[in-house]
Each structure stands twice: as C-alpha cells, then as structure tokens.
Amino acid sequence: MTTTTTYTVKGMTCGHCVSSVTEEITEVAGVTGVEVDLATGLVTVGSDGPVDAAAITAAVKEAGYEVVTPS
Ligand SMILES: [Cu+2]
C-alpha cells in the first residue's frame, strides 16, 4: 500500500528546479515516487511506509530549496 505526503516547497521557478528537488527526494530511504507541481510548489511524496519528514526537508534543502509546510 502506498502512502502519500504533501509538502510545500518554496523557491522553485523552472523545470530544472523541479528535477533537482525530485532527484534529491527520490534518494530518501523509503520513497517510491515524487510528484512536483511547479505552479503551486506542492510536492507529493509516495512511499511504502512512513518516511522521516526531516529527511525530506533535508533533501529539499540539499537541492537548494526550502520546505515551508511540513505535513
Ligand atoms: Cu529552476
């Protein structure tokens, strides 16, 4: 069963930003899928089990952006 969690990421402006964020989040343990909506900044993370929100925040930071509403 797949769980999805949505985050709002600040600072993405183009397709390159989207792929950077997608790439970094994909590397987080347990993540099975990442979907980014550039217009809204919404990032949906799919996983088979619970994923450490702090790890997602760190991955986004690694890409050069910021999670504004961890949920
Ligand atoms: Cu960009």
Could you characterize what this model shows?
Residues 3-68 form the HMA domain. Keywords: Metal-binding. This is Copper ion binding protein. InterPro entries: Heavy-metal-associated_CS, HMA_dom, HMA_dom_sf, MerP/CopZ. The protein is of the alpha+beta class and 71 residues long. It has one domain: Alpha-Beta Plaits (2-Layer Sandwich). Helices cover 32% and strands 32% of the residues. It has 2 helices and 4 strands; from the N terminus they run E-H-E-E-H-E. It has helices at 15-26, 53-63; strands spanning 3-10, 31-37, 42-47, 66-67. A 4-stranded antiparallel beta sheet has the order 2-3-1-4, covered by helices on one side. The mean pLDDT is 94. The site of copper (II) ion has 4 residues, from helix 1.
Radius of gyration: 11 Å
Uncertain parts = none
Give the DSSP E fraction (strand runs of 2 or more residues): 25-35%
What is CATH's topology name?
A: Alpha-Beta Plaits
Count every helix, treating DSSP H or I runs of 4 or more residues as helices. 2
Strand order of the main beta sheet, please? Answer: 2-3-1-4
What is the straight-line distance between the termini? 19 Å
Label the structural class.
alpha+beta
Q: At CATH's second level, what is the architecture?
A: 2-Layer Sandwich
DSSP strand tally: 4
Principal-axis shape: globular
How many domains? The number is: 1
Query: Approximately how much helix is present in the residues?
Result: 25-40%
| Secondary-structure element order, N to C | EHEEHE
